[in-house]
């Protein structure tokens, strides 16, 4: 396992706004990740989490600083940094199978035979329990299923880093809990390096090795990094009562509300959005019992 | 073996019979009446108003034709069509006989075969018009769709081409026509022409006018593709060709078809005007000839042409709609 597998050094970005001065979204973001590590990004809405992710993906180009993956600088998007988008972004005109096949055919067109590719596509869809709906269109399956297919498409590219932008944000608490468990299982088996954006504090603590907490924008940067040293495999039911879990969770909440809460957000002029988002974060909290009951039903 | 085939045939006809019965069953008399009543009523009211109005309009060519007179003209045109076909058949028969006789007298005699060159009848004109509009439409869209895709993908190209599009888009076909006529007669000087000059002139004029709707709609459709899908494609590192084929074309398909439908409708309208003005064969020329003819039947015959033009336009639109239904991936989309 390499310690400096993925490295962001002094990353900053400015967006042209049409105004006189460009908008500085990020400033001096530094992060080092080890291979196989699971890192969550958490922070208020609009602080620049997606921007960080897009810079790692190569979809945005940093104005200063840069990203280094396995000793190589990231200059453009590529399948070694697969992205799970918030709204799945499956091609609506392709079936579940064909959506994954599009990626697989592109990445393995020289290294795998047709039959091998076919097997690989089916294997990855089975990994996320979607092998029963191979020939359905995205419009014919539920939101949670679409997100599963999106994850399968990324896993199938065998990326060095899996980038996930609020992958479960649009799902109900029950489905979310199920997918979190699947993701934990898959990551334990395959040892993927993952960067995940989330608004859900419990999700961050449950899944991550480290939680990167971002300060509010503009010119957002990394406010604090929390190491989650809970042993794996983790069980959401057992953890709910665990004092260390409760403490970690409290630390994240404290960072978000006490140190970078609504007052700080008001300064940036993003008042309404931030206020709404705080409610949403609390909302995630409150839905937690449902998440637990989902764990219940799975255990039973 | 033969038995097996026979029984298979039997099964087939049985299946057909059953299907027929099912169709008959599905046509409920009550539902049929409900579905057909409003449009039939609408048509009847229209015919009544038309008749009433026609009786009050007197022109120098006689009374304006009502539905009854127009129907008589339809019959007249049908009879004329029949006569022309008979004449044609007779012409070829005579030629055949003459040449046969010549050969009988002298086996080495050179015999001449001539094509029949009678005056084209109404149906011939319809056919000419349809072929011309199809040619112009295809020609236009061979340019419009690829160019639209490039414009939609690259804002640089779009900004370069946009002023030109905006300038030429509103130009009436009648303004293009003289230019096209002159250019075609100057440049198309093959001794054994594949196409008539008049055909080319009409088709190019149609193409120049029905280029724009497809071009603009394709551009808008391609430029408006969901950012996330484009990003997904970039992450997969699809090659430009694959990106266009797998992402851009399907995503823009609904808009492209909207453009194609508008384009075909425009083309059909433009064609009639072009044929009238340029005296190119086709429905437009039929109308113009009747107008110049000025007999008592003329107005009725023009009215027949008007109705046929409208009805063909309607059919062409339905055809595009059916094609759109076939090519559309979004089967839930309601097409109108
Ligand atoms: N292409 C762009 N052009 C201009 N400004 C942008 C662009 N993309 C993002 N921004 C700005 O950068 C800031 C960070 O945006 P970003 O999408 O990264 O936030 P986020 O943390 O992901 O928010 P959320 O949690 O709501 O998804 C925002 O203020 C946004 O307005
Ligand atoms: Mg975001």
UniProtKB/TrEMBL annotation, chain A:
<keyword id="KW-0813">Transport</keyword>
<dbReference type="GO" id="GO:0015112">
    <property type="term" value="F:nitrate transmembrane transporter activity"/>
</dbReference>
<protein>
    <submittedName>
        <fullName>ABC transporter ATP-binding protein</fullName>
    </submittedName>
</protein>
<dbReference type="InterPro" id="IPR005890">
    <property type="entry name" value="NO3_transporter_ATP-bd-like"/>
</dbReference>
<keyword id="KW-0067">ATP-binding</keyword>
<dbReference type="InterPro" id="IPR017871">
    <property type="entry name" value="ABC_transporter-like_CS"/>
</dbReference>
<dbReference type="GO" id="GO:0005886">
    <property type="term" value="C:plasma membrane"/>
</dbReference>
<dbReference type="GO" id="GO:0016887">
    <property type="term" value="F:ATP hydrolysis activity"/>
</dbReference>
<keyword id="KW-1003">Cell membrane</keyword>
<dbReference type="Pfam" id="PF00005">
    <property type="entry name" value="ABC_tran"/>
</dbReference>
<dbReference type="GO" id="GO:0005524">
    <property type="term" value="F:ATP binding"/>
</dbReference>
<feature type="domain" description="ABC transporter">
    <location>
        <begin position="6"/>
        <end position="241"/>
    </location>
</feature>
<keyword id="KW-0472">Membrane</keyword>
<dbReference type="InterPro" id="IPR003439">
    <property type="entry name" value="ABC_transporter-like_ATP-bd"/>
</dbReference>
<dbReference type="InterPro" id="IPR050166">
    <property type="entry name" value="ABC_transporter_ATP-bind"/>
</dbReference>
<comment type="similarity">
    <text>Belongs to the ABC transporter superfamily.</text>
</comment>
<dbReference type="InterPro" id="IPR003593">
    <property type="entry name" value="AAA+_ATPase"/>
</dbReference>
<keyword id="KW-0547">Nucleotide-binding</keyword>
<dbReference type="InterPro" id="IPR027417">
    <property type="entry name" value="P-loop_NTPase"/>
</dbReference>
From TrEMBL, chain B:
<dbReference type="GO" id="GO:0055085">
    <property type="term" value="P:transmembrane transport"/>
</dbReference>
<keyword id="KW-1003">Cell membrane</keyword>
<feature type="transmembrane region" description="Helical">
    <location>
        <begin position="298"/>
        <end position="316"/>
    </location>
</feature>
<feature type="transmembrane region" description="Helical">
    <location>
        <begin position="203"/>
        <end position="226"/>
    </location>
</feature>
<keyword id="KW-0812">Transmembrane</keyword>
<keyword id="KW-0472">Membrane</keyword>
<feature type="transmembrane region" description="Helical">
    <location>
        <begin position="247"/>
        <end position="278"/>
    </location>
</feature>
<dbReference type="InterPro" id="IPR035906">
    <property type="entry name" value="MetI-like_sf"/>
</dbReference>
<feature type="transmembrane region" description="Helical">
    <location>
        <begin position="174"/>
        <end position="191"/>
    </location>
</feature>
<feature type="domain" description="ABC transmembrane type-1">
    <location>
        <begin position="126"/>
        <end position="320"/>
    </location>
</feature>
<keyword id="KW-1133">Transmembrane helix</keyword>
<dbReference type="GO" id="GO:0005886">
    <property type="term" value="C:plasma membrane"/>
</dbReference>
<keyword id="KW-0813">Transport</keyword>
<dbReference type="InterPro" id="IPR000515">
    <property type="entry name" value="MetI-like"/>
</dbReference>
<protein>
    <submittedName>
        <fullName>ABC transporter permease</fullName>
    </submittedName>
</protein>
<feature type="transmembrane region" description="Helical">
    <location>
        <begin position="35"/>
        <end position="53"/>
    </location>
</feature>
<feature type="transmembrane region" description="Helical">
    <location>
        <begin position="130"/>
        <end position="153"/>
    </location>
</feature>
<comment type="similarity">
    <text>Belongs to the binding-protein-dependent transport system permease family.</text>
</comment>
<dbReference type="Pfam" id="PF00528">
    <property type="entry name" value="BPD_transp_1"/>
</dbReference>
């Amino acid at each position: 396992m390499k310690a400096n597998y993925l490295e962001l050094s002094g990353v900053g970005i400015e967006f042209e706004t049409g105004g006189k001065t460009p908008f500085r979204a990020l400033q001096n973001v530094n992060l080092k990740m080890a291979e196989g590590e699971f890192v969550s990004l958490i922070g208020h809405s609009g602080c620049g989490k997606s921007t960080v992710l897009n810079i790692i993906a190569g979809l945005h180009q940093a104005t200063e600083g840069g990203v280094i993956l396995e000793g190589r600088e990231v200059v453009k998007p590529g399948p070694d940094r697969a992205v799970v988008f918030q709204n799945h972004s499956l091609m609506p005109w392709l079936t579940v199978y064909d959506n994954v096949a599009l990626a697989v055919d592109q990445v393995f067109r020289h290294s795998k035979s047709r039959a091998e590719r076919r097997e690989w596509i089916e294997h990855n869809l089975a990994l996320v329990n979607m092998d029963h709906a191979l020939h359905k269109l995205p419009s014919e399956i539920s939101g949670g299923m679409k997100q599963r297919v999106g994850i399968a498409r990324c896993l199938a590219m065998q990326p060095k880093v899996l980038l996930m932008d609020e992958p479960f944000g649009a799902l109900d608490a029950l489905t979310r809990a199920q997918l979190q468990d699947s993701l934990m299982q898959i990551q334990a088996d395959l040892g993927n390096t993952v960067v995940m954006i989330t608004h859900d504090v419990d999700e961050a603590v449950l899944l991550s090795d480290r939680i990167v907490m971002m300060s509010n924008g503009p010119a957002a940067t990394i406010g604090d990094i929390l190491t989650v040293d809970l042993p794996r495999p983790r069980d959401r039911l057992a953890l709910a009562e665990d004092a260390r879990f409760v403490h970690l969770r409290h630390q994240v909440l404290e960072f978000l509300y006490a140190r970078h809460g609504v007052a700080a957000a008001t300064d940036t002029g993003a008042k309404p959005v931030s206020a709404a988002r705080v409610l949403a974060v609390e909302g995630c909290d409150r839905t937690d019992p449902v998440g637990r009951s989902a764990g219940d039903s799975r255990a039973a | 073996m033969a038995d097996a085939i026979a029984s298979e045939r039997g099964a087939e006809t049985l299946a057909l019979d059953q299907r027929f019965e099912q169709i008959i069953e599905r046509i409920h008399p009550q539902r049929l009446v409900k579905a057909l009543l409003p449009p039939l009523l609408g048509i009847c009211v229209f015919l009544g108003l038309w008749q009433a109005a026609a009786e009050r309009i007197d022109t120098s060519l006689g009374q304006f034709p009502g539905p009854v007179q127009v129907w008589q003209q339809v019959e007249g045109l049908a009879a004329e069509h029949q006569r022309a076909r008979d004449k044609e058949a007779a012409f070829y028969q005579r030629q055949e006989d003459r040449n046969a006789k010549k050969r009988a007298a002298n086996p080495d005699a050179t015999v001449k075969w001539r094509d029949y060159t009678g005056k084209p009848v109404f149906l011939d004109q319809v056919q000419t018009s349809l072929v011309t509009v199809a040619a112009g439409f295809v020609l236009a869209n061979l340019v419009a769709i690829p160019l639209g895709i490039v414009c939609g993908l690259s804002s640089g190209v779009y900004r370069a081409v946009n002023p030109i599009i905006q300038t030429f888009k509103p130009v009436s076909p009648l303004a293009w026509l003289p230019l096209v006529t002159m250019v075609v007669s100057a440049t198309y000087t093959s001794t054994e022409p594949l196409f008539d000059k008049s055909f080319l002139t009409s088709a190019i004029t149609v193409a120049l006018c029905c280029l724009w709707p497809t071009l603009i709609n394709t551009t808008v459709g391609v430029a408006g593709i969901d950012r996330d899908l484009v990003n997904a494609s970039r992450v997969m590192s699809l090659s430009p060709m694959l990106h266009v084929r797998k992402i851009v074309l399907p995503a823009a398909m609904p808009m492209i078809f909207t453009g194609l439908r508008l384009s075909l409708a425009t083309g059909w309208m433009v064609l009639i005007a072009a044929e009238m003005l340029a005296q190119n064969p086709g429905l437009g020329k039929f109308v113009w000839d009747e107008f110049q003819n000025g007999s008592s039947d003329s107005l009725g015959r023009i009215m027949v042409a008007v109705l046929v033009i409208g009805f063909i336009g309607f059919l062409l639109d339905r055809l595009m709609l059916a094609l759109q239904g076939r090519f559309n991936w979004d089967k839930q989309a309601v097409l109108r």
